[in-house]
Amino acid sequence: MFRSLGLFNYRVWFLGALVSNIGGWMQSTAQDWVVLTELTDNDATAMGVTMALQFGPPLVLVSMTGWVADRFDRRRVLLITQTALLLLAIAVGALLLAGVMTLPLMLVFALAFGVANAFDSPARQAFVSDIVSRDDASNAIALNAASFNMARLIGPAVGGLLIVVIGTGWVFIVNAATFLAMLVALVAMRRDELVPRVRGTGASRLADGFRYVARRPDLVVTFTMVFLIGAFGMNFPIFASTMAIEFGRGADGYGVLSSVLAIGSLAGALLAARRARARIRVVILAAGGFGLASLVSAAMPGYGLYGAALVFVGFSTVTMMTTANGYVQTTTDPALRGRVMALYMAVIMGSTPVGAPIAGWIVDALGPRAAIVVGGAAGLVACAVGVTWVLLSGRLHRSEESRFRLTLDETRPLTVVEPEDFSDEVAQTTPLRITDEAEAMGTLPHRQRGHRG
């Protein structure tokens, strides 16, 4: 389960990311609470707009950010983006402590955070493949998710407590200090042990990521499921904060709900780390589980029961997102991985500008439970999309071992040879280096040497 931690560079990365993510969740809790209770009078729509501005840039800038992740040294890109995020956190904290922060000013900073994260996220996601080999990529990605959710378990609860004890401004300052852990980790890495990678060249290749995904129906379906749940189901800051208020709780109660959600999230990430490789069937099943768990949580009558239901919501969410992330990374041509991951992150983060304002409006008009029901319904629709594709794709067939058992052909991670020039044919059939082991396992169909669409 923890084999990637045997590598020095990954251990350093893991610890730095853990500390930084704890601070990030503390800041996220403080920002949500500032907008909801200090800058407005429990205005969920304003909170939704703030989230939209923060998560919109990855969608708008996707071509540029993906190209940067493929073209430049990802370690240096991360040094720049992490420093920018540190400085922004200090600025917001100082304005809050000075008592001059306003809602329009907070919206400007939310947009600035979004731009910095737009460049940071695809580089950070793809950088994992620079630290570990392809064989360990799925494990490393799952452990990244575990680190993220360990931070999610600790950060919101600590952030909620610190809001009560020292105030929201100081929470931003504390988060700025945690960015130093990631910067130290990036500097301390042994650069000669990083995995050599293929780099894209030239602005003419910006559209290659789009074309590659368009020629991979399995990726199109995965992105669609992720978008549906990301837009309408993963508005947890809006759901948890407004449900906390409905149950008569304050910032500490909101922080506890976020941490309870992380208990299930951490369990899902650790379970994903045990799997040999990411499978699309797990993504589909987890989407359905998310829908059902969300509907159950919306019906809970008390704070404690709602928190208990959130454990299952968190488990299914992270199981889906971690598996989808691993599936996209390990089945994508390395020469295009940065751009494809930029698209993936744009779908996740860019879905928020679509769904968060809608969720906020539903909360203001009908209450938080109605918004949660809409999110649960989106999960069931996502599952239905995946199941429909499986039935129509021809991948589902009767097992050769048992006549009553069905099996699903999965796209496998394969060794890819860099193409001379990208083309439509490359998107459909990536040139591969076929090994005797792959032939023996029946990895590829006899008539086609490429990814199964």
Structure, described:
It is a multi-pass membrane protein. Keywords: Cell membrane, Membrane, Transmembrane, Transmembrane helix, Transport. GO terms for molecular function: transmembrane transporter activity. It comes from Microbacterium betulae. By secondary structure, the protein is an all-alpha fold. Helices cover 74% and strands 1% of the residues. The protein contains 18 helices and two strands. The chain has helices at 8-38, 44-55, 57-60, 62-71, 74-98, 103-131, 137-165, 168-188, 208-214, 217-232, 236-246, 251-274, 280-298, 303-330, 337-366, 368-393, 424-428, 436-441, and strands at residues 396-398, 406-408. A hairpin with a 7-residue loop joins β1 and β2 (406-408). α1 packs antiparallel against α8 (168-188), α4 runs parallel beside α6 (103-131) and α9 (208-214) packs across α15. The longest helix is centred in the first third of the chain and has 31 residues, at 8-38.
Shape: globular
The strand order across the widest sheet is 1-2
CATH C-level of the largest domain? Mainly Alpha
CATH hierarchy: architecture of the largest domain = Up-down Bundle
Total DSSP E strands: 2
CATH topology tier name of the largest domain: Growth Hormone, Chain: A
The portion of residues assigned to helices is over 70%
Please mark out the parts with pLDDT under 50 across 5 or more consecutive residues, or reply none. 200-204, 412-453
From the helix content, strand content and strand pairing, which structural class follows? mainly alpha
Q: How many domains would you count in the coordinates?
A: 2
